[in-house]
Amino acid sequence: MMASFCLMKAVALAVIAWPQFACAVYCDHVLIDEGKSCEYPDPKKQKTDVPNPMVVPRFSGIATFLKLPMATEGTKYDIAVLGIPFDGGASYRAGTRFGPGGVRQASKKLRASGYQPGSRLHPFQDITVVDVGDAAVTPFNIVSAMDQATDFVMNVTKDKGPAGLPQRAVMIGGDHLVPIATLRALQRSSQPSGVCLIHFDAHMDTSDDFFGEKYTHGTPFRRAHDEGLLRPGCSISIGLRGGLSGVSDWSEHRRLGFDIVTSDDLTDLGFTEVVRRIRQRVANQPTYVTVDIDVLDPAFAPGTGTLDPGGLSSRELLRLLRGLVGLNVVGGDVVEVSPPYDHMEITQLTAAYVALDLISLLSSAITSSDRHSEL
Ligand SMILES: [Mn+2]
Asked: Which residues contact 273 (CB under 8 A, 6 or more apart)?
């Protein structure tokens, strides 16, 4: 029964470039490898010690992300959650230097231990996840700050984790310049050919400069392209909208290696087609997922720097992220969360959900790494 289901799925999914599911089946709603017994994982045997909210009230305790263990000297882990509290690249509202702290505080709400029905995964079952704190970056010099952040990310991802693979990072920003640090660290450690980018954002972020400055939150992916951090022709931006300098901005973005799915395209094409486009674009190549929270409509994410109406709902963003399970995800971030402009923790809470989904994607990629041709 399971085998035939797997075969049917393999045939169906081969058509839409979903090869990594060819040997996976669902045990009830839980995605498992074919051949494994259909048993529910025991929450008490999770590799990561996330407090059980039925025992420890969620509102209590010190706010690491998800109240994950804080890494100390010698701690072994597969995934590091880290913050880069820098907003010196912002062109409009600032305040994202408070993003890591705000997202950690809001993350207390999440029920993270055990099974996540959205992604259909037990992200903490087979891997070890810790909070490694924030990069100490100067607020007074952009280039120095990004060098400091790069060194920090390199340092917390320099070893192999207990699962036997290079340590991965889920980063909380910071403005959208700060992924330059995580992308550099990946390229210098485990991904010398760079990565494909799945980029959720209202804006392209591939301008050449702002006021003559090359490193700003509107230029990170042109710099990433120029620094050789991106693989050619396999990136994709989702949710773009807002004003442009001219229509040539589109063609320039494409020239730098990005396919484009605007916010209007998502409305017209629908979730299934957009997920197919994303999966076909990156295939099984090493992929980094960057989520600018301003991809959401301001109704869902008021606490950010550069708002543009007509964006995604929280439901649409989370649904798209969960459509990426099984891809060869090697890193991710959620950026541009500005707590001083937030209301009722709406934006920070949604960003915490995004970060948990990024952990789930990485967890899935690590535990199914034998399905990927390249790590
Ligand atoms: Mn952005």
From this structure: none
